[in-house]
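Morning - S-adenosylmethionine inputs below, output right after.
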Amino acid sequence: MHHTEKSILMKRRTLGEHLTSVNIFKEYILPKIKDKINCYTWVDLFAGEGNLILPILDLVPEEKRIEFFRDNIFLFDIQKEMVERAIKNAESYRIPRMIAEKNIQVKDTLKEYPLLNVKKPIYHITNPPYLYIGYIAKHKENFGQLDYFTASLKGLQDLYQIALMNDLQNEINQMVYIIPSNFLFGHSVSNLIRRKFLPWYKINDAIIFEKKIFENTGVNVAICFFERTTAKNSTIKFKATKINGEIKEREYILSHKNDYRAGTEFDDYIKSQEKNTLKISYYLTKKEIDNNPGNNKVLLLNSKEYKNGEYIKESFFVNDKLYEKIIRNPLFIRTVDTGNENGRAGLYYIKDVFGTDGIFVEGNTYRTNPIQVFIEPYLSLKQLKQLQLSFNQKLNELRAITDSEFMTTYKYSNNAKYTRKYLGLSQAKQLLEVIDIKN
Ligand SMILES: C[S@@+](CC[C@H](N)C(=O)[O-])C[C@H]1O[C@@H](n2cnc3c(N)ncnc32)[C@H](O)[C@@H]1O
């Protein structure tokens, strides 16, 4: 890689920089603040080129712009180059350089919150740096950033969380944050920040992107509109717009009982159900076949050899015990949506889909390939059918309620009817273990 390219990349990783495009601001943020531009002081503490605030000037009549800027806009960034670019950007709105330099300054605002002597309350709009503490701790050039995570901020997991806490501690009333969606959906990476922050802020609006919006990061982000509350929240209800191939509305209820995590319906459902007595295991391995030779012929699908658009089939001779085990377990789990309506993740009959008695795997297992499911004790044919139907029905019900949030996005494709998702094997097991099997 070219030297300067590499150093740009290094800097990007170090400071968590990726620029917010003016378009995102104009499309998703500006419409919601445009009627209030005269009521607040507009601040971005991690301003980059200033694209999240400066376009507000478009709404101000040209003869009033300089005054508006001087009194109501303040931008900061730790990088001199960024501040220089933001100043140039302000100049392009006809703000004289002298005035721009006063309100656009270099500062480490994670370390020190700027004191602004302003008349109107602060409205903070920002796309803060994102950097996971695990990354920081592993990279020498980032070690200095560990200092942010001390005292009351100890235990937080990402730079953006430090930014949120600083706003809380400085009693900022209104904020718009562009942050990783894991703020809403994450477990260990965001439980603590939600527990500390969300008792004091409600979410008035959110736009959740299930697609890449920034050039330099694959992280999915959400735009969150926060407003400080006077009394502590124990639940937060909000409507969000989710954007992937299509646009959907979804309501979330966050509760302190779940560390204010969004999308807990799957876990809640599992917890609310009684467990059955089935023992579930996955995979028929080549090793098990080799260890159980005999006279019974079985035709098996080799889940790792894919030729001319299909998996290859192989015959083996196995002993009675393994033969019975294979034949009495005719179901497989499809963990990944195929992309068409009848190929959704779920339980299916191996015979129907592949025309074999079973599915084996040699060597490393792949969780996204078809996987034979083994159930103990063996179920009757009627019970198997009931298990399959109930499992798929419940899975699809939960997917509909949660917009499949408990699954992982497998591949973004804008033209598929739906976003293809992956169902974790442990989730499949959890669900199998609560299906009520009748005798
Ligand atoms: C994700 S970018 C924000 C881009 C910006 N919102 C825009 O629209 O152009 C994060 C910015 O925060 C800055 N930054 C990182 N650490 C900082 C710190 N401790 N104090 C102030 N700014 C910081 C980076 O230099 C970078 O420009």
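Note: Residues 15-20, 46-49, 51-52, 76-79, 82, 108-110, 127, 129 surround S-adenosylmethionine (CB under 6 Å).

O.
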